[in-house]
Amino acid sequence: MYYCTKLLFHVALVFIVNHAALHSSCATIEVDTTSKLQAALRNVQPGDTIVLAEVEFYGFFRAEVDGTQENPIVIEGTSNSVLTSWSSAFNLEASWYILRGFTIANSKKGILIDGGNFNVLENLTVHTIEEEGVHFRFFSSDNVVKECHIYNTGTTRPGYGEGVYIGQDYSKWSSPSEPDKCDRNIIIDNRIGPCGAENIDIKEGTCCGIIQGNYFIGTAMSNVNSDDSWVDVKGSEYEIIDNEGYFTIKDGYQVRTHMPEGGVSGCRNVFRRNKSDLSGNTNGVAIYLNSRTQCDNSTQIYSDNVVINGGEITNGWVIPA
Ligand SMILES: *[C@@H]1O[C@H](CO)[C@@H](O)[C@H](O)[C@H]1NC(C)=O
Ligand SMILES: *[C@@H]1O[C@H](CO)[C@@H](O)[C@H](O)[C@H]1NC(C)=O
Ligand SMILES: CC(=O)N[C@H]1CO[C@H](CO)[C@@H](O)[C@@H]1O
């Protein structure tokens, strides 16, 4: 067990000499160059805070040291602390981090979370990214993205480069029977878009996340590679509530089955209290089901979803709220 200074006093009081505590403390590490940030990421300990100066950090940044539930690792800056890269700018391959306040811009990908759990990404700005803004891959679960501003992603190839991407297409799984389960991720109170692909892409094989209180802007939709809605829902058991979307070339949300070997996905998702402004396609529907009877009618679309400047709530069935 690792204790940092916050707990050391208490530990001393009860006369427990914790060896780890003797050479550890919740350090604050201030960094103002690429090499200092890279060194800080290598040497960081649970409970430490890395503070980014208001400068541009150009390079490749990878976090591999885990924090803990009691002592997460914090990386914070302001919107003037900017990470940029020729590659993916921030590679979070660890758990129990809080990333807060800074900007990721002008990079190939924004933040890649690979096998990272229980991380919180908050108040970040992610913009002008060639591919995905924030991508959870390789069994990254229980993460939160909140109060972030993610826009101008997918700048090079129309239809590729989502704002937030959860999981991976089944062609990237290790085998057709081993979904890349990125589960229970929460995307809340973000402003997402315009993006060159979906604002959020929820991949098959993932489940049980929450998409709530987000504002989606669809004005950069490409109509390439099915980029014709704010959110593609191919995962199952998501709650999609209290979101607001503006402008689309087809629909607001699309629920689809996309699975290997004739399997089904996109089941038992719940839509409540979303407001969809379908300006851009007055014939669109807010929540489009690829199959009207998707997964034995298990999609729950409540009548408290509201549509303006468009057609119906859904081409499926509406449940009284
Ligand atoms: C979010 O970041 C901005 C820009 O750095 C800062 O001004 C603001 O206080 C932060 N908001 C919160 C809630 O921390
Ligand atoms: C789905 O709903 C439709 C329309 O109410 C109904 O005809 C169909 O039998 C339902 N399918 C299942 C599997 O419940
Ligand atoms: C029906 C409706 O308008 N529901 C909500 C959709 O989400 C936005 C943003 O959270 C709310 O302001 C709406 O009240």
TrEMBL record:
InterPro entries: Pectin_lyas_fold (IPR012334), Pectin_lyase_fold/virulence (IPR011050). Keywords: Signal. It comes from the Eukaryota. Residues 1-27 form the signal peptide. This is Right handed beta helix domain-containing protein. It comes from Orchesella dallaii.
